[in-house]
Write a structure and sequence with these properties.
Elements lengths: L2 H6 L13 H21 L9 H14 L3 E2 L11 E5 L2 E3 L13 E10 L2 E10 L5 H19 L7 H14 L3 E2 L5 E3 L6 E5 L16 E4 L2 E3 L5 E3 L6 E3 L5 E3 L2 E5 L4 E3 L14
Antiparallel strand pairs: 1-4, 2-4, 3-12, 4-5, 6-10, 7-8, 9-14, 10-13, 11-12, 14-15
Helix pairs in contact: 2-3, 4-5
The structure holds 2-amino-4-trifluoromethylsulfanyl-butyric acid and cobalt (II) ion (2 copies).
Length: 273
Protein backbone atom coordinates (compact mmCIF):
# COMPACT_ATOMS: atom_id res chain seq x y z
CA UNK A 1 0.00 0.00 0.00
CA UNK A 2 1.47 3.37 -0.93
CA UNK A 3 1.14 6.53 1.14
CA UNK A 4 -1.85 7.93 -0.74
CA UNK A 5 -3.81 4.67 -0.37
CA UNK A 6 -2.94 4.53 3.32
CA UNK A 7 -4.58 7.88 4.04
CA UNK A 8 -7.54 6.95 1.85
CA UNK A 9 -8.15 3.69 3.70
CA UNK A 10 -8.83 4.21 7.40
CA UNK A 11 -8.95 0.91 9.26
CA UNK A 12 -12.04 1.88 11.20
CA UNK A 13 -15.46 2.81 9.89
CA UNK A 14 -15.78 6.55 9.49
CA UNK A 15 -19.22 6.53 7.85
CA UNK A 16 -17.92 7.56 4.45
CA UNK A 17 -18.47 5.36 1.40
CA UNK A 18 -15.03 4.67 -0.05
CA UNK A 19 -14.39 4.87 -3.78
CA UNK A 20 -11.72 2.47 -4.99
CA UNK A 21 -9.49 2.45 -8.06
CA UNK A 22 -7.80 -0.30 -10.09
CA UNK A 23 -5.66 -1.46 -7.15
CA UNK A 24 -8.79 -2.08 -5.06
CA UNK A 25 -10.50 -3.94 -7.91
CA UNK A 26 -7.41 -6.16 -8.33
CA UNK A 27 -7.34 -6.87 -4.59
CA UNK A 28 -11.06 -7.68 -4.42
CA UNK A 29 -10.82 -9.92 -7.50
CA UNK A 30 -8.25 -12.11 -5.71
CA UNK A 31 -10.10 -12.18 -2.38
CA UNK A 32 -13.47 -12.77 -4.03
CA UNK A 33 -12.09 -15.57 -6.17
CA UNK A 34 -10.63 -17.43 -3.19
CA UNK A 35 -13.92 -17.15 -1.27
CA UNK A 36 -15.84 -18.47 -4.29
CA UNK A 37 -13.34 -21.30 -4.80
CA UNK A 38 -13.83 -22.26 -1.16
CA UNK A 39 -17.61 -22.54 -1.74
CA UNK A 40 -16.91 -24.57 -4.94
CA UNK A 41 -14.63 -26.92 -2.97
CA UNK A 42 -17.43 -27.57 -0.44
CA UNK A 43 -20.04 -28.64 -3.03
CA UNK A 44 -19.11 -32.36 -3.17
CA UNK A 45 -18.59 -32.49 0.61
CA UNK A 46 -22.14 -31.47 1.54
CA UNK A 47 -24.14 -34.69 1.97
CA UNK A 48 -26.15 -36.52 4.60
CA UNK A 49 -24.02 -37.55 7.60
CA UNK A 50 -21.37 -34.83 7.33
CA UNK A 51 -21.32 -32.23 10.11
CA UNK A 52 -21.08 -28.50 9.59
CA UNK A 53 -18.03 -28.57 11.88
CA UNK A 54 -16.29 -30.87 9.37
CA UNK A 55 -17.27 -28.54 6.52
CA UNK A 56 -15.93 -25.60 8.51
CA UNK A 57 -12.63 -27.41 9.06
CA UNK A 58 -12.36 -28.11 5.30
CA UNK A 59 -13.03 -24.42 4.61
CA UNK A 60 -10.36 -23.35 7.12
CA UNK A 61 -7.73 -25.65 5.58
CA UNK A 62 -8.62 -24.51 2.07
CA UNK A 63 -8.43 -20.81 2.89
CA UNK A 64 -5.15 -20.90 4.82
CA UNK A 65 -3.50 -23.32 2.33
CA UNK A 66 -4.33 -20.89 -0.48
CA UNK A 67 -2.93 -17.71 1.00
CA UNK A 68 -6.03 -16.39 2.73
CA UNK A 69 -7.04 -15.57 6.27
CA UNK A 70 -10.54 -16.48 7.50
CA UNK A 71 -12.13 -13.12 8.35
CA UNK A 72 -14.79 -14.53 10.70
CA UNK A 73 -12.25 -16.29 12.94
CA UNK A 74 -11.95 -14.03 15.97
CA UNK A 75 -14.38 -11.47 14.54
CA UNK A 76 -16.38 -10.15 17.55
CA UNK A 77 -15.49 -13.38 19.34
CA UNK A 78 -16.73 -15.70 16.56
CA UNK A 79 -14.70 -18.97 16.58
CA UNK A 80 -15.18 -20.39 13.06
CA UNK A 81 -14.28 -19.85 9.40
CA UNK A 82 -17.84 -20.16 8.10
CA UNK A 83 -21.41 -19.57 9.15
CA UNK A 84 -23.57 -22.63 8.44
CA UNK A 85 -27.28 -21.87 8.56
CA UNK A 86 -29.57 -24.88 8.28
CA UNK A 87 -33.28 -24.81 7.29
CA UNK A 88 -35.01 -22.17 9.49
CA UNK A 89 -31.67 -20.59 10.49
CA UNK A 90 -31.58 -17.25 8.69
CA UNK A 91 -27.85 -16.50 9.13
CA UNK A 92 -24.86 -16.74 11.50
CA UNK A 93 -25.48 -20.44 12.25
CA UNK A 94 -22.52 -21.85 14.17
CA UNK A 95 -20.79 -24.97 12.80
CA UNK A 96 -21.59 -27.96 15.04
CA UNK A 97 -20.81 -31.70 15.34
CA UNK A 98 -24.42 -32.62 14.49
CA UNK A 99 -24.65 -34.50 11.15
CA UNK A 100 -26.65 -33.01 8.28
CA UNK A 101 -29.76 -34.98 7.31
CA UNK A 102 -31.24 -35.86 3.93
CA UNK A 103 -33.61 -33.02 2.97
CA UNK A 104 -31.79 -30.27 4.90
CA UNK A 105 -30.81 -27.08 3.09
CA UNK A 106 -27.76 -25.27 4.41
CA UNK A 107 -26.31 -21.86 3.65
CA UNK A 108 -22.53 -21.70 3.89
CA UNK A 109 -21.11 -18.18 4.21
CA UNK A 110 -17.37 -17.58 4.04
CA UNK A 111 -15.31 -14.41 4.17
CA UNK A 112 -11.60 -14.47 3.38
CA UNK A 113 -8.91 -11.81 3.59
CA UNK A 114 -6.26 -11.78 0.85
CA UNK A 115 -3.60 -9.05 0.89
CA UNK A 116 -5.88 -7.07 3.23
CA UNK A 117 -8.99 -7.26 0.99
CA UNK A 118 -12.22 -9.04 2.00
CA UNK A 119 -14.17 -11.48 -0.19
CA UNK A 120 -17.57 -12.36 1.33
CA UNK A 121 -19.96 -14.83 -0.31
CA UNK A 122 -22.56 -17.48 0.49
CA UNK A 123 -24.60 -20.10 -1.32
CA UNK A 124 -27.31 -22.62 -0.51
CA UNK A 125 -26.44 -26.33 -0.52
CA UNK A 126 -29.08 -29.08 -0.72
CA UNK A 127 -28.33 -32.11 1.48
CA UNK A 128 -29.36 -35.21 -0.48
CA UNK A 129 -32.87 -34.83 -1.90
CA UNK A 130 -34.75 -31.67 -0.92
CA UNK A 131 -38.46 -31.05 -1.36
CA UNK A 132 -39.96 -28.82 -4.05
CA UNK A 133 -40.86 -25.99 -1.66
CA UNK A 134 -37.22 -25.81 -0.57
CA UNK A 135 -36.01 -25.99 -4.17
CA UNK A 136 -38.37 -23.18 -5.12
CA UNK A 137 -37.30 -20.92 -2.22
CA UNK A 138 -33.61 -21.45 -3.03
CA UNK A 139 -34.19 -20.48 -6.68
CA UNK A 140 -36.30 -17.43 -5.75
CA UNK A 141 -33.56 -16.28 -3.37
CA UNK A 142 -30.83 -16.69 -6.00
CA UNK A 143 -32.95 -14.86 -8.56
CA UNK A 144 -33.63 -12.02 -6.10
CA UNK A 145 -29.88 -11.58 -5.53
CA UNK A 146 -29.22 -11.43 -9.27
CA UNK A 147 -32.11 -8.97 -9.83
CA UNK A 148 -30.60 -6.77 -7.10
CA UNK A 149 -27.20 -6.98 -8.78
CA UNK A 150 -28.78 -6.04 -12.13
CA UNK A 151 -29.68 -2.65 -10.60
CA UNK A 152 -26.06 -1.81 -9.77
CA UNK A 153 -24.67 0.97 -11.94
CA UNK A 154 -23.56 4.56 -11.32
CA UNK A 155 -26.56 6.86 -10.81
CA UNK A 156 -28.88 4.15 -9.49
CA UNK A 157 -29.42 4.00 -5.72
CA UNK A 158 -29.30 1.47 -2.91
CA UNK A 159 -33.10 1.79 -2.84
CA UNK A 160 -33.26 0.53 -6.43
CA UNK A 161 -31.42 -2.63 -5.33
CA UNK A 162 -33.71 -3.21 -2.34
CA UNK A 163 -36.81 -2.51 -4.38
CA UNK A 164 -35.91 -5.02 -7.10
CA UNK A 165 -35.33 -7.73 -4.48
CA UNK A 166 -38.46 -6.95 -2.45
CA UNK A 167 -40.77 -6.63 -5.45
CA UNK A 168 -39.68 -9.97 -6.87
CA UNK A 169 -39.60 -11.93 -3.59
CA UNK A 170 -42.94 -10.60 -2.35
CA UNK A 171 -44.43 -11.22 -5.80
CA UNK A 172 -43.54 -14.88 -5.26
CA UNK A 173 -45.41 -14.84 -1.89
CA UNK A 174 -42.17 -14.84 0.09
CA UNK A 175 -40.95 -12.27 2.64
CA UNK A 176 -37.68 -10.36 2.96
CA UNK A 177 -35.70 -10.27 6.23
CA UNK A 178 -35.04 -6.68 7.28
CA UNK A 179 -32.99 -7.29 10.46
CA UNK A 180 -29.80 -7.91 8.44
CA UNK A 181 -28.44 -6.19 5.37
CA UNK A 182 -25.60 -6.15 2.89
CA UNK A 183 -22.63 -3.94 3.65
CA UNK A 184 -19.72 -2.04 2.21
CA UNK A 185 -16.45 -3.97 2.37
CA UNK A 186 -12.90 -3.73 1.13
CA UNK A 187 -10.05 -3.42 3.58
CA UNK A 188 -12.81 -3.50 6.21
CA UNK A 189 -15.22 -6.45 6.63
CA UNK A 190 -18.30 -4.34 7.41
CA UNK A 191 -18.37 -0.74 6.28
CA UNK A 192 -20.75 1.87 4.85
CA UNK A 193 -23.10 1.72 3.01
CA UNK A 194 -25.79 -0.58 4.42
CA UNK A 195 -27.53 -2.40 1.57
CA UNK A 196 -31.13 -3.03 2.59
CA UNK A 197 -32.91 -5.79 0.71
CA UNK A 198 -36.13 -3.78 0.65
CA UNK A 199 -36.59 -0.22 -0.60
CA UNK A 200 -38.09 2.32 -2.88
CA UNK A 201 -36.75 3.28 -6.31
CA UNK A 202 -34.50 6.33 -6.20
CA UNK A 203 -34.09 6.36 -2.42
CA UNK A 204 -30.97 5.72 -0.35
CA UNK A 205 -27.39 6.33 -1.43
CA UNK A 206 -26.52 7.13 -5.03
CA UNK A 207 -24.16 4.46 -6.41
CA UNK A 208 -20.80 5.62 -7.75
CA UNK A 209 -18.03 3.93 -9.68
CA UNK A 210 -15.54 2.37 -7.25
CA UNK A 211 -17.96 1.49 -4.43
CA UNK A 212 -17.59 -2.05 -3.06
CA UNK A 213 -20.39 -3.80 -1.18
CA UNK A 214 -22.23 -7.07 -0.67
CA UNK A 215 -25.80 -7.94 -1.56
CA UNK A 216 -27.04 -10.87 0.55
CA UNK A 217 -30.83 -11.19 0.64
CA UNK A 218 -32.43 -13.52 3.19
CA UNK A 219 -35.84 -14.65 1.89
CA UNK A 220 -38.45 -16.52 3.96
CA UNK A 221 -41.37 -18.78 3.08
CA UNK A 222 -43.23 -17.42 6.13
CA UNK A 223 -43.08 -14.15 8.07
CA UNK A 224 -39.98 -11.93 7.94
CA UNK A 225 -39.45 -11.78 11.72
CA UNK A 226 -36.32 -13.31 13.19
CA UNK A 227 -34.96 -13.91 16.68
CA UNK A 228 -31.44 -14.51 17.95
CA UNK A 229 -30.82 -17.66 20.00
CA UNK A 230 -29.13 -17.56 23.40
CA UNK A 231 -25.71 -18.31 21.82
CA UNK A 232 -25.80 -14.67 20.71
CA UNK A 233 -25.29 -15.51 17.01
CA UNK A 234 -27.83 -17.90 15.51
CA UNK A 235 -30.68 -15.99 13.84
CA UNK A 236 -33.82 -18.07 13.20
CA UNK A 237 -37.23 -17.37 11.71
CA UNK A 238 -39.71 -16.80 14.56
CA UNK A 239 -42.27 -19.03 12.82
CA UNK A 240 -39.55 -21.68 12.20
CA UNK A 241 -40.39 -21.72 8.50
CA UNK A 242 -37.74 -22.16 5.82
CA UNK A 243 -35.36 -19.35 4.88
CA UNK A 244 -32.61 -19.02 2.25
CA UNK A 245 -29.74 -16.67 1.39
CA UNK A 246 -27.15 -16.05 -1.31
CA UNK A 247 -24.40 -13.42 -1.15
CA UNK A 248 -21.98 -11.82 -3.60
CA UNK A 249 -19.33 -9.14 -3.15
CA UNK A 250 -19.41 -6.62 -5.99
CA UNK A 251 -17.79 -3.42 -7.22
CA UNK A 252 -19.51 -0.61 -9.11
CA UNK A 253 -17.93 -0.03 -12.55
CA UNK A 254 -18.45 2.71 -15.15
CA UNK A 255 -21.05 0.58 -16.95
CA UNK A 256 -22.55 -1.52 -14.18
CA UNK A 257 -20.78 -3.80 -11.78
CA UNK A 258 -18.20 -6.53 -11.39
CA UNK A 259 -19.06 -9.59 -9.28
CA UNK A 260 -15.89 -10.49 -7.37
CA UNK A 261 -17.24 -13.78 -5.97
CA UNK A 262 -18.55 -15.53 -9.12
CA UNK A 263 -18.02 -19.30 -8.98
CA UNK A 264 -15.00 -20.22 -11.17
CA UNK A 265 -16.48 -23.75 -11.46
CA UNK A 266 -19.84 -22.25 -12.47
CA UNK A 267 -21.55 -23.76 -9.44
CA UNK A 268 -23.74 -20.67 -9.06
CA UNK A 269 -26.83 -22.28 -7.54
CA UNK A 270 -28.25 -25.77 -7.05
CA UNK A 271 -28.67 -28.30 -8.48
CA UNK A 272 -24.87 -28.60 -8.58
CA UNK A 273 -24.76 -32.10 -10.16
N1 LIG B 1 -20.23 -13.29 6.41
C1 LIG B 1 -21.25 -12.63 7.18
C2 LIG B 1 -21.74 -11.49 6.32
O1 LIG B 1 -22.22 -11.77 5.26
C3 LIG B 1 -20.76 -12.14 8.49
C4 LIG B 1 -20.42 -13.21 9.45
S1 LIG B 1 -19.84 -12.47 10.87
C5 LIG B 1 -19.39 -13.77 11.80
O2 LIG B 1 -21.62 -10.34 6.59
F1 LIG B 1 -18.71 -13.32 12.77
F2 LIG B 1 -20.47 -14.43 12.17
F3 LIG B 1 -18.67 -14.59 11.09
CO1 LIG C 1 -21.70 -10.08 4.10
CO1 LIG D 1 -21.16 -13.33 4.31
Amino acid sequence: MNYVDAIDAPLERDGSIKLHGPEGFAGMRKAGRLAAECLDMLVPLVKPGVSTEELDRAAFEFVVNNGGVPACLGYRGYQHTTCTSINHVVCHGIPSPKPLKDGDVVNIDVTVIVDGWHGDTSRMYPVGEINRRAERLVQITYDSLMLGIAQVKPGNTTGDIGHAIQKFAEGQRCSVVTDFCGHGLGRLFHDAPNILHVGRPGQGEVLKEGMFFTIEPMINLGKPTVKILSDGWTAVTRDRKLTAQFEHSIGVTKEGCEIFTLSPAELHHPPYA
